Amino acid sequence: MVEAIEEAGGVKSLYSYFYLSEGNIEFLEQAAKTQSRIFIDSGGFSAYSRDAKIDIDEYCDWLLKHESEIDVYAVLDKIGDPKGTMKNQRHMESRGLKPLPAFHYGSDLQFLKEMASEYDYIALGGLVPLARQKAKLKRWLDKCFNVIRTDAKVHGFGMTGVEILKRYPFYSVDSTSWLGGSIRSEVYRFEAGEMKVRSTKDREKADHESIHLADDNDKRWFDRVVNNCREWMKFEDYVTRLWEKRGISFDE
Fold first, then answer.
1. Which of 89, 167, 164, 75 is nearest to 128 (CA)?
2. Pairing state between β 102-104 and 186-191
3. Cβ contacts of 113 within 8 Å, gap of 6 or more
4. Distance CA 248, CA 169 (A)
5. Taking burial as the number of CB atoms within 10 A of a residue's CB, which of 177, 184, 248, 251 is the most buried?
6. Same domain, 81 and 100
7. Closest CA to 104 of 85, 121, 118
8. 134-148 helix and 109-118 helix, angle to the nearest 10 degrees
9. 194-221 burial by CB neighbour count: b if 16+ within 10 A, else e?
10. What confidence score (pLDDT) does residue 180 get?
11. Cβ contact 39:172 at 8 Å
């Protein structure tokens, strides 16, 4: 997908150590040639979901080896264990690294308060399962941003919902929605402040643009991904300007 990001003019991307460490390092090396900001997630949640383990020192060694190619990297989080996650934070710092600390849904907000007072950039995680429970998600994020206020910039793992990003001033976010062009034959359009999506599998509703008529085995999936990447970047620009109008802006 690095080629698609490059074709779309993208310069920011997030990759998971959990997957890159399995022999896919060429993605990182290729991305570093054309992208100015690369974010590495430890993949702690992916490992947890698969009952796998990530060795923290192997993660540290990998980051130190590739630090010239990486802009931001997250702590190796321990799902459901804020003390364990902070222990990993301190261990990685003792190795000379500066990982982005992470705070997960359901943890004691005191941890978040302490984190926001110590670090100028933090991450909120464990939110993806709440994507379809908007009221619950908003209640939690209300609490989090009331604690953080303007003390730190915030990254939202798996948070690219239009409604959520209009409501909360995230500094950065990520999700795999834009990959729907290759996974689910989806085509996105950002119009009038809203993200619209249609599936090319529904031929009766598709128009006659080539990207809407691609067969699953056709290389036109690449065109869909490039299109989607561009549309999500339009949304990025829109929401950035929205918060600037509200008096909130961030330096790169």
1. 164
2. unpaired
3. 147
4. 8
5. 177
6. yes
7. 85
8. 40
9. ebeeeebeeeeebeeeebbebeeeeebb
10. 77
11. yes
d(CA 101, CA 93): 11
Whole-prediction pTM value? 0.87
Tokens standing for 168?
């909360």
SS3 16: strand
**Does residue 251 fall inside a structural domain?**
no
- 252 domain-assigned: no
**Host domain of residue 54:** 2-179
How many alpha carbons fall within 13 Å on the CB side of residue 92?
26
Task: Give domain status of residue 126, yes or no.
Answer: yes
Contact 85, 102 (CB under 8 A): yes
For 32, the token pair is 């570093």
User: If you search the block for the tokens 């929401």, which residue do you land on?
Assistant: 239
CB 148 within 8 A of CB 133: no
- Rounded to whole angstroms, the Cα distance separating 36 from 6 reads 11
Among left, alpha and beta (phi > 0; psi -120 to 50; other), residue 43 is: left
The sign of the dihedral angle between the CA atoms of 222, 16, 231, 233 is negative
Question: Measured between alpha carbons, how far is residue 92 from residues 57, 60, 67, 156 in Å?
Answer: 8, 7, 13, 21
Average pLDDT, consecutive stretches of 10 residues, N- to C-terminus, the chain (252 residues) = 79 86 68 78 85 93 91 92 96 98 96 96 93 94 95 94 96 87 83 88 44 52 88 95 93 64
